[in-house]
From TrEMBL:
Organism this protein belongs to: Dictyobacter aurantiacus
Subunit structure: Homodimer.
Functional pathway: Carbohydrate degradation; pentose phosphate pathway; D-ribose 5-phosphate from D-ribulose 5-phosphate (non-oxidative stage): step 1/1
Family per record: Belongs to the ribose 5-phosphate isomerase family.
GO process annotations (BP): D-ribose metabolic process; pentose-phosphate shunt, non-oxidative branch
PANTHER family from the UniProt entry: RIBOSE-5-PHOSPHATE ISOMERASE
Alphabetical keyword list: Isomerase
Annotated function: Catalyzes the reversible conversion of ribose-5-phosphate to ribulose 5-phosphate.
Name this protein carries in UniProt: Ribose-5-phosphate isomerase A
Length: 232
């Protein structure tokens, strides 16, 4: 017997289904990573089963690729389609300027590549992901070259962060790109996301950050009041 969904999962499902309805005939679609994006993948698979035809989908992680492929979504890559019509993904935090923290699932580099390759980047989330300032609920993930983990951690700590190397079963978490992730907690939040992003990118060995700035076209939020879309 299937356990009933929690309210939060129901909100994620509603957001994912609403985003799947944005996908049109002949599109090339980017698929995000994480629990909310998984609802999108299932909703897209259902639409394809009902007759929707897309050129293909590009996955932001190996996990999403496997899930989508197993659901008979036609998969492709950026070599065949370097421009996506739409990229849909979740977020860990969303501020009023539609700036994001992403990367709790470890796919932030590939997610940012797909977002930058898309004509339209749509974020799906439950209402708990809305924040007034980034950095209070989730640490900021920074993907790094493993060789440089200690000097990078030292330099980021000088920016006011508390640093943890992400682990999985007591060993360092390895991204799909064979890198490490530093989870960076800023006790006072992130006052200027753009400035911090620039400072982090100036550190040699930093591959990418989980700050997504000036990238989002639209946000779809599922919550107790139903589905809301920003901007309208």
């Amino acid at each position: 017997m299937t356990a009933p969904m929690s309210p939060q999962d129901t909100w994620k499902q509603r957001a994912g289904s609403a985003a799947a309805d944005l996908i049109e005939e002949g599109m090339v679609v980017g698929l995000g990573t994480g629990s909310t994006a998984a609802y999108l993948v299932r909703a897209l698979a259902q639409r394809i089963q009902q007759g929707l035809q897309i050129k293909g989908a590009v996955a932001s992680s190996l996990a999403t690729y496997e899930m989508a492929n197993n659901l008979n979504i036609p998969m492709t890559d950026l070599d065949d389609y370097p421009e996506l019509d739409i990229y849909i993904d979740g977020a860990d935090e969303i501020d009023p300027q539609l700036r994001l923290i992403k990367g709790a699932g470890g796919a932030l580099l590939r997610e940012k590549i797909l977002a930058s390759a898309a004509r339209r980047f749509v974020v799906i989330a439950d209402s708990s992901k809305k924040v007034t300032q980034l950095g209070h609920r989730y640490p900021l993930p920074v993907e790094i070259i493993p060789l440089a983990k200690t000097p990078i951690a030292l330099q980021i700590s000088r920016l006011g962060a508390q640093i943890q190397i992400r682990h999985n079963n007591n060993i360092p978490f390895i991204t799909d790109n064979h890198n490490y992730i530093l989870d960076c907690t800023f006790p006072q939040g992130i006052g200027d996301p753009a400035q911090l992003d620039a400072q982090l990118h100036n550190i040699v060995g930093v591959v990418e950050t989980g700050l997504f700035i000036h990238m989002v076209s639209q946000v779809i939020i599922g919550g107790p009041e139903g589905v809301q879309v920003f901007p309208q």
